[in-house]
Design a protein that fits this description.
Serine Threonine Protein Phosphatase 5, Tetratricopeptide repeat; 13 helices; about 250 residues; mainly alpha
Amino acid sequence: MEVDSLLTRLVQATQQGFLAEFDACLASNPSLVLSRDADGVTLLHWAAINNHAHLVHRILHLASQQSGSPRLCDAVGGSVKATPLHWAARNGALAASIALVEVGTPDLEVTDIQGLTALHTAAIFDHHLLVAYLVAKGADVDARDQETGRTPLLWACCSQKKEGKDPVVGTLLKLGANVNLKDKVGKTALHWALQAVCPPHTPHASWLPPAPCISPLSLLACPAIGFAVFVGEVGLVCGVAADPWNRFHVAG
């Protein structure tokens, strides 16, 4: 069988999670486990994004048996030059992420071409369980991306829709994310939360005290703004405060 045809079968088996077909494709040429396409995407990327933890284990095991094999867990590929863990984080593939971290021991602070870590990616795409797991494994909860200077908390706040609760924000707060950090345009998590939940015509930015430190408890005490809706601790509806200055409690 031609190599190109075999690789096509191998990629499809990996994407679909078919272990028997995967092994059959590699039987005659085990080194194909290290294959990368024109964009640098590996079989491990495909196993990760599709949450096939069993294939993550198999790929890493077979790769370790190849002499001079690269660290597949830190291989970057695709349009944004991301690692397999980034791909798993985008889809919230928790089982595959656990397999990658436990077996492959990737560098959790590796960034893609946008300067995002896997934790940033998990926060942006609302995968709170994966956020909690990555922080527990040592990912920097306050890591800043290179382009905007945003932390996972800042990204979680500015990425939200108006409706529903957001367990990611609550998870990050409980894990000690710093609520006082600002991005490169000078906005805090609270600025982004207000902008996300309030109508476009609302002068939300002018409601913030000029330069106080704001504690996590302060954020939970903003029912008129609706930050608590994101945190997931209080199910209150966003509204307009008649006296907004009295709705913020500055940390002393």
